[in-house]
Amino acid sequence: MIVHIVLFQFKDENKKANMIQAKQMLENLMGAVPSLKSIDVGFNFSPEERAMDLSIITAFENREDLDAYAVHPEHLKVVDFIKSVVEYSKVVDYTRV
User: What does pTM read for this prediction?
Assistant: First the structure.
């Protein structure tokens, strides 16, 4: 199993609305992208300076399925929106044993 985690830091402009829209768009990928086995999207509540605004944890059967997700048209629509409203993001990919 492949786990793909992304953390997002949103721009201040329309932050709350953009976070809600991003969460909805990400959750809508379940069922729309066949290789996506699960997705968990959450808003941060930690007040720490190092905290990020939103996280996603996704799971795939293998790296090929993660690669298919990366280029899927529905995922790319979400990526386009998110790129326009985030300052930066961080990613971690690993194999769950």
Answer: 0.94
